[in-house]
Amino acid sequence: MIDLRDCVSTYNDKKPVTFVEKSARGVITSSLSQTMEEQHLSPNMTDQLATIYAWTIDFFRLQPGDRFKVIYSEKYINDTIPAGLGEIKAVMFEHRGKPIYAFSFIGDSIMGITDYYDDEANNLRRAFLKAPVKFSRISSRYNLKRRIKFYGNRVRPHKGTDFAAPIGTPILATADGVVTKSERRGGNGKYVKIRHNGTYETQYLHMKAQNVKKGQHVRQGDVIGWIGMTGNTGGPHVCYRFWKNGKQVDPFKQDLPLSKPLEEKYQDTYFDHIAPLKGQLDNISF
């Protein structure tokens, strides 16, 4: 605080913040963000739900009729002034007729790491994200029999998945790994390649600029570059390529490894914790 009345003085102060538990529901009509807007919910909730379900739901392929219920906390200053979204405690997202529960829980009491688990204590995370860009769209899929009119309708295999998004959109590493290439070459334009282990590698093409260097360790979700139009491309997108045992494959057709479930020693506590939350979710009607 800066006081300019008699003489200039400054001091630090803090307003009391309270957390109020709330619940919400929604049915998808066109997109998750539009449904949030229709329900007068925070835009941050869109981002948080996309993060929670990033490994289990393809948010580029939501269908009208998909729906969700959520229990969350909202912050207030002096009990009256809204101060933003707090913790999302529990969610039920029904996608293509299948309900997927998510409950916030500290699975590692020593490290204090919070994660999201389903109603059977399975971690919702997988080893790989569904996509390297949030809230994009697939403009071209992996297709070994693709024909292009420009090249005389000859077969020109497309061994990647294109995610279209505006120039400058962050590109995320889909899994932990080590950067093996960060360079510019021919039709690939500026690109990054990551080795995740002895089985899997990923590559991200046509970047505006890279944000990592060769030899650098990256974590899942790190920004490794930005959408651009370098190399052979007709519009802004990232071509996402996926290798398994040295062969390029379609990532959407792979049975990718799951993260480890909640340790057994925490499970009794976990099921006691989620029982009332699941009851609350189940009692929210659409």
Detailed description of the structure:
With 286 residues, the protein is mainly beta. It is 13% helix and 41% strand. It has two domains: 17-126 and 261-283, Nuclear Transport Factor 2, Chain: A; 137-253, Glucose Permease (Domain IIA) (Distorted Sandwich), CATH 2.70.70. The model has no long low-confidence stretch (mean pLDDT 88).
Helices and strands in order:
Layout: E1 2-3, E2 9-10, E3 17-27, H1 32-38, H2 43-52, E4 67-77, E5 81-95, E6 98-108, E7 113-117, E8 137-140, E9 147-148, E10 154-155, E11 161-164, E12 170-172, E13 177-185, E14 189-195, E15 200-210, E16 217-218, E17 223-227, E18 237-244, E19 247-249, H3 264-283
Give a short synopsis of this structure.
The chain is mainly beta and 286 residues long.
Instruction: Tell me the domain tally.
Output: 2
Q: What is the name of the CATH topology of the largest domain?
A: Nuclear Transport Factor 2, Chain: A
Report the uncertain regions: none
The number of distinct helices, counting runs of at least 4 residues, comes to 3
Rough shape?
globular
Oligomer: single chain
Summed over residues and divided by their number, the pLDDT gives a mean of: 88
Number of strands: 19
The computed structural class is mainly beta
CATH class of the largest domain: Alpha Beta
Any key phrases for this structure?
3 helices, mainly beta, Nuclear Transport Factor 2, Chain: A, globular, 286 residues, 10-stranded antiparallel sheet, 5-stranded antiparallel sheet, 2 domains, Glucose Permease (Domain IIA)
